[in-house]
Write a structure and sequence with these properties.
It is built from 36 helices and nine strands. The chain starts with 7 loop residues before the first strand and ends in a 6-residue tail after the last helix. A five-stranded parallel beta sheet has the order 4-5-6-3-7, sandwiched between helices. The chain has a two-stranded antiparallel ribbon with strand order 1-2. A two-stranded antiparallel ribbon has the order 8-9. This is LuxR family transcriptional regulator. InterPro entries: P-loop_NTPase, Sig_transdc_resp-reg_C-effctor, TPR-like_helical_dom_sf, Tscrpt_reg_LuxR_C, WH-like_DNA-bd_sf.
């Protein structure tokens, strides 16, 4: 999540799951608001922090959430909505923040409900005001379906949901500007404390003295205690004294008050502060501020240089950007080794207003679209190569900008003049959405809009999109919709008659047959498409699209491998994966190479070649960690468990199964998502339990489940050893309520009967049972009953 005004950056949380950002600057004041918010949380499952822009709602929400962490075993999760423009993607955005990928055959909303229904989670929905209706409906639905869920929202308006409690966030406390308090009393005022803290950060030698005390009090009072305004003023201490800052603010306020007496005072204050900051910028900086406001969710320097007009991108461009950073107009944030720049939403909205006033807004939108189209095209041309990891990271960081550009490409002004733009853009994004992130819902959202609005696009692009949309529908288990797309794709391809369109139609038909349970019928379409692609590659036709063609050929080989394997032709399946490796390995590609290595490793294991299986699985896991695909990483951990039990290492197998299960829960998937592999999972679990016993298996399983992702991967690869499972007393494993539930399960009671006995809801009872299964590493109620019988004397009463 991008940091707001440089105050926070995303960091991992060790003690409990979640994604709260770490504070990089001191948190000032708000004791009363924090206490009141916590009190409201104790009486309501939905609390909204409401207030004007710049009053500090987000920072307060993060602090309240951090202070509430102990109460939420499932973690505290921040969902930043300020950059989201399309309410249709609200569920996808929340799921992404929680790390939940799409699941075939299920809506994102249902996945969210299942994930949240039995977990004690605090969801922080930040900046809801522009999505008010959608957030209200979505939040109410989640709260009704998930009894353990609580929501903390920030908005300029209340959501209007039943049971909502609202805390109006006031400005920071300020001293009386008419009668300045003595120096020793100034620190008790929050606004003064904030000004001093931020001024000292900019100018370490700054101190509050008798000489500047009145000026600082005047600044805080004139700015009405608004944190954003105070921070913008404090940064000027580098070039001005407190008295000079005060003088300039006084003049501005008089002018603004006379100009708009009906505007709310605090809006006047914030507006005057931003106006003042704008006018302190040089003319070029003002232009740059306006032009850079076209970016959503931040940008990198190459994007700024590509989107801004040539007259701004000269020898002084970098100096002007650096000056805007110094003035706190731009916020610098580090994403690994990459530096991104962003604006607070209030600052960006101001710049956008100036851009519209200048008449340059349509031009800026066009340039923003064109640059991001080129970015996606370049990513596609280098996707099957050594820079794949780079491009995955870059497109991840640019998702907000890509969504903005896609939405603009679908407006009438673009479609009328560039009907191909949207289709090219969407088709270019498909590999990212599908291969590496599993964002099938988002892919279908944009493809559906494009197929509806871009009728004038080239038929060749439309054929390709129909193929992509059919596969996406199949991954969502919507076979009727997929079949309709395949029929449209086939009809259009036959009308065109060109080899590439016919290939796309064959790929589409092949995948539909595989997902429909008729793999034998998929073999011929895949063979025909792959042969055609190979023949055209040999003749060197269509060089401009050769890379994407190779990508589709690899996708076809994956389809043929699946169809052949499911049809019993293991030899052809292995040959396909070996051909994929022959294509991708010299190119330095990661994703397809990892998948084929993992598959070949599994095949080697089934014929008893455990050493080769371990080598191929290790290769897959090392590759997949570089592109951060948690689902496939979980598959690899599971495969290592199967290898371990074959090599008579049951403890290692149990640890790896626990790690795979924990990673799958985090990713929102199953450890084994391919049905034909379930038999191997069950066999490994049975052999491991037989070797270790129920108690020993549970201890080893919990050891693995308690590992972080990096530790689990290192353990699987042999890069680090883990301690043997500790022989700790079993009693503390379960809470008192979970122990009660386990006893009732052992007595043979159903979830409904357990709910009646304990006077809780059936859904809560179900959640407790799932927690017991997870903590003990079990998969059935019978195993719980056996565990209760074996460990009854050791459990806490």
């Amino acid at each position: 999540m991008p940091a707001r005004r440089g105050d926070v950056v995303t960091t991992s949380v060790k003690d409990k799951p979640g994604n709260l950002p770490a504070e990089l600057t001191s948190f000032v004041g708000r004791r009363h608001e924090i206490a009141e918010a916590r009190r409201l949380q104790s009486t309501s499952r939905l609390v909204t922090l409401a207030g004007i822009g710049g009053v500090g709602k987000t920072r307060l929400a993060v602090r309240v959430a951090e202070d509430s962490r102990r109460a939420f075993a499932g973690g505290v999760w921040l969902v930043a909505l300020g950059e989201l423009r399309d309410p249709a993607l609200l569920a996808e955005t929340v799921a992404a923040a929680l790390g939940l990928p799409d699941q075939p055959g299920r809506s994102v909303s249902s996945v969210l409900v299942d994930h949240l229904s039995a977990r004690q989670i605090l969801l922080v929905l930040d900046n809801c005001e522009h999505l008010l209706g959608a957030v209200a409906e979505f939040g109410e639905a989640l709260l009704r379906a998930c009894p353990e869920l609580r929501i903390l929202a920030t908005s300029r308006e209340l959501l209007g949901v039943d049971g909502e409690r609202v805390l109006r966030v006031p400005p920071l406390t300020v001293p009386d500007v008419e009668q300045t308090p003595p120096l020793e009393a100034m620190s008790r005022y929050e606004a003064v404390a904030l000004f001093v803290a931020r001024a000292t950060a900019c100018l370490p030698e700054f101190v509050l003295t008798e000489a500047n005390c009145a000026a600082v009090a005047g600044i805080c009072g004139r700015l009405d205690g608004l944190p954003l305004a105070i921070e913008l003023a404090a940064v000027r201490i580098r070039a001005m004294s407190a008295e000079q800052i005060m003088e300039r603010l006084t003049d501005r306020y008089r002018l603004l008050t006379v100009g708009s007496r009906v505007a709310p005072t605090r809006q006047q204050t914030l507006r005057s502060c931003v106006d003042w900051s704008y006018e302190l910028c040089a003319a070029k900086e003002q232009q740059l501020w306006a032009w850079l406001s076209v970016f959503v969710g931040g940008f990198e320097l190459d994007a700024a240089e590509g989107v801004c007009p040539e007259e701004l991108v000269d020898d002084d461009f970098l100096d002007a950007v650096a000056s805007l950073v110094d003035k706190s107009i731009l916020v610098r944030e580090e994403c690994g080794e990459i530096v991104r720049l962003s604006m607070a939403e209030t600052i960006r909205a101001y710049g956008s207003e100036k851009l519209r006033e200048s008449g340059d807004f349509p031009r800026a939108q066009r340039r923003h679209l064109a640059w991001h189209e080129q970015l996606v095209e370049l990513a596609g041309s280098e996707w099957l190569g050594p820079r794949q990891v780079h491009w995955i990271g870059r497109l991840d960081r640019e998702q907000s900008n890509l969504r903005e550009a896609l939405a603009f490409s679908m407006t009438a002004s673009v479609i009328d003049t560039e009907p191909d733009a949207t289709a090219r853009f969407v088709n270019g994004m498909y590999t990212f959405w599908s291969s590496c992130r599993g964002q099938w819902g988002e892919a279908r959202h944009w493809m559906g809009r494009c197929l509806t609005t871009a009728d004038a696009a080239r038929a060749e692009e439309r054929v390709l999109m129909l193929y992509f949309d059919s596969v996406s529908a199949e991954m969502q288990a919507k076979l009727d919709e997929a079949a309709a797309r395949v029929a449209q794709c086939r009809e259009l391809a036959e009308q065109l008659g060109d080899p590439e369109s016919l290939e796309a139609a064959n790929y589409a038909s092949g995948y539909l047959a595989v997902f429909s349970g008729d793999p034998a019928a998929a073999v011929e379409p895949f063979r025909a498409a792959i042969a055609s692609a190979g023949a055209r590659s040999a003749t060197g036709s269509a060089p401009s699209r050769s890379v994407s063609r190779v990508g589709r050929q690899v996708g076809g080989l994956l389809g043929l491998a699946a169809a052949s394997g499911l049809s019993g032709d293991e030899e052809t399946a292995v040959a396909c994966h070996e051909q994929i490796l022959a294509i991708t390995t010299p190119r330095g590609e990661h994703h397809f190479r990892a998948y084929s290595s993992w598959t070949l490793g599994h095949t080697a294991l089934q014929v008893g070649e455990t050493d080769r299986a371990a080598t191929l699985t290790e290769q897959a896991l090392r590759l997949i960690r570089q592109i951060n695909d948690p689902v496939m990483a979980g598959w690899c951990l599971e495969s290592f468990a199967w290898i371990a039990i074959r090599e008579d290492e049951p403890t290692r197998a149990a640890v790896l199964m626990g790690a795979a299960e924990a990673l799958a829960r985090t990713a929102g998937s199953a450890t084994v998502t391919l049905p034909y592999l379930l038999v191997h999972h069950d066999e490994c679990e049975r052999l491991t339990r037989d070797a270790l016993g129920i108690r020993g298996y549970g201890e080893a399983f919990r050891t693995g489940a308690g590992m972080g992702v990096d530790d689990a991967v290192a353990y699987a690869l042999g890069d680090r050893r883990t301690e043997e499972p500790r022989k700790a007393p079993v009693a503390p494993v379960l809470t008192r309520r979970e122990a009660e539930v386990a006893d009732l399960v052992a007595e043979g009671l159903t979830n409904k009967e357990i709910a009646s006995v304990l006077v809780i809801s059936p859904r809560t009872a179900q959640g407790h049972v799932e927690h017991v299964l997870s903590k003990l590493g079990f998969t059935s109620r019978t195993q719980i009953a056996a565990w209760v019988a074996e460990n009854h004397k050791n459990r806490q009463p």
